[in-house]
Amino acid sequence: MLQYTSTPVQEFHHPTIEAAGVRVIIKREDLNHPFISGNKWWKLKYNLAEAKRLNKKILLTFGGAYSNHIYATSAAAHECNFESIGIIRGEEVEPINPTLRFAREQGMKLHFVSREEYRKKNDIVFIQGLREKFGDFYLIPEGGTNEFALKGCAEFGESLLSLSFDHLYLPVGTGGTIAGIIAGLGNACEIVGVSVLKGDFLKKEVDQLLNIYSQGKKNTSSIYGNWSILTSYHHGGYAKVTPELMGFIREMKQQHNLPLDPVYTGKLMWAVMEDVKKGSFRRGSTILVVHTGGLQGATTYQNLYEEIST
Ligand SMILES: *Cc1c(COP(=O)(O)O)cnc(C)c1O
């Protein structure tokens, strides 16, 4: 249903990596679609199919004002002829930012709610109220994480089996993407998630998602062995940055032709480089880094950041 462009694997050269005797390759999944990029494409694929199967005309989802998920869902709805509604956390600020402007241009109806109300996003009574207001929609949870997202990400994980690598690194927000990839790859390699949030609750979250996913399937959670989540590379928490991180992102772009965003992939690549420096990898091993996309907000973020810091 959704357009898909197959994506390249970029060989990453860096003195630190060469000195450690390892190989780093980057799956540029950010290039799979101009607007529904990276993991969001895979998370939406089977949700859209399910919405079609149920004959729904409207998609409704939740997100913050800079959300990659809102951006991608609005474009997916447009491409597949659904109406869409975005429940946005916080009051509307004029002028609206480029992420929300784009969503509106795709036809998404934006409905702003207070942070307090937004917290009820999984509450049945609150959702019922939204149904009375907006009609019979197909609900996609915040960040798009549900069993259909896992199915899509598992398919993506399986597709990576044609590459040869020992470790896979990716960023983790809600945990949906890593859970799907773990399910798809089994224990073909070590899978390492880099948490972009402060705290260590994601391990449990991913365990729960894997349990939901394996229900009724012959795979049991015992085959999901070789994965972990790193919790020390969040740079202060979700969407928080440091001057060092912003400098690193600029250097990656200018010297390595690698565009990264500050919320997810910048922290991911930072973690990879730190782990290489620490000697975490055996000489001769290959690390596959999954570029999960999210570049839509990067320019805005860089501009905002420069305004604040100058
Ligand atoms: C949403 C997003 C993630 C996080 O994915 P989860 O499935 O929520 O863990 C990672 N990278 C990018 C670029 C994203 O937009």
In short:
The chain is α/β, with parallel strands linked by helices.
Number of helices: 12
Q: Could you say which overall geometry the principal axes of the C-alpha atoms support?
A: globular
Gyration radius, rounded: 19 Å
- Strand fraction: 15-25%
Indicate the low-confidence ranges by residue numbers: none
* Overall number of domains: 2
C-alpha end-to-end distance: 45 Å
Fold-level CATH name of the largest domain = Rossmann fold
**What is the H/E string?**
EHEHEHEHEHHEHEHEHEHHEH
Structural class: alpha/beta
Describe the strand arrangement of the main beta sheet, using strand numbers.
1-2-10-7-8-9
- The helix fraction, in percent, is 40-55%
Averaging pLDDT over every residue, what do you get?
A: 94
- Per CATH, the class of the largest domain reads Alpha Beta
What CATH architecture label of the largest domain applies? 3-Layer(aba) Sandwich
Main beta-sheet annotation:
6 strands, mixed
Modified residues (N6-(pyridoxal phosphate)lysine): 40
Cofactor: pyridoxal 5'-phosphate
InterPro entries: ACCD_DCysDesulf, TrpB-like_PALP, TrpB-like_PALP_sf
Family: Belongs to the ACC deaminase/D-cysteine desulfhydrase family.
